[in-house]
Amino acid sequence: xxxxxxxxxxxxxxxPLHYTDYGYGFHEIKLAFHHTLYQWIPYFRETTLSWxxxxxxHNQNIDSFSFHCAMAGMxxxxxxxxxDGYDFALIRRMIEVWRRxxxxxLHGDHYALTPFSKSPERWVVAQFDSPERGEGYIQAIRHRxxxxxxxxxxxxxxxxxxxxxxxxxxxGRTWTASGRELLEQGATFELPPRSGSIWFYRRRxxxxxxxxxx
Length: 214
Prior knowledge:
Layout: H1 8-11, H2 27-40, E1 45-47, H3 64-68, E2 74-76, H4 88-107, E3 109-112, E4 123-130, E5 135-142, E6 150-153, E7 163-168, E8 174-178, H5 179-185, E9 187-190, E10 195-203
Parallel strand pairs: 1-2
Antiparallel strand pairs: 3-4, 4-5, 5-10, 6-9, 7-8, 7-10
């Protein structure tokens, strides 16, 4: 029955470490599942399985895109420990990105900034905001067949009069923007096909809005 076992009564007593029988390595399918799971079941397991590059289901190549599509409360790295040749520096870097995102995944407010879709021609953008901490992140994913190289997301839950420090998770690049600017003008991502980006943000402590816990 796959995901049909994830009913609310069952979820009172368990967590879905195997939430369905289908789609783990098809990124557009798993992200469609995420769209619903985040609304009802904050903690679930996801893997970095990637089946869109011609790999076999048991011989995985790891890249940053597979991690971006696997952001969940529990992350499983799909590598064969008997084999060499993996980019372990990339794996370690992406695990650190996930560790930074995980508290917001578990305890933050979830905002789906794009509609439900299973199409490889679409973008998938989501926000997790921890208002009591004045921080969170926005993640944008451009699927392999998307013709649009740019997407402007409209974040929610930010304080208009506050100043936010934003940081790109993988590169460490930082910049600032006002809450009003982000709410009214949006956050614009420019990505190549089959890639993702995660922008962490925190409310600056010394802004005029008197933010705390930034």
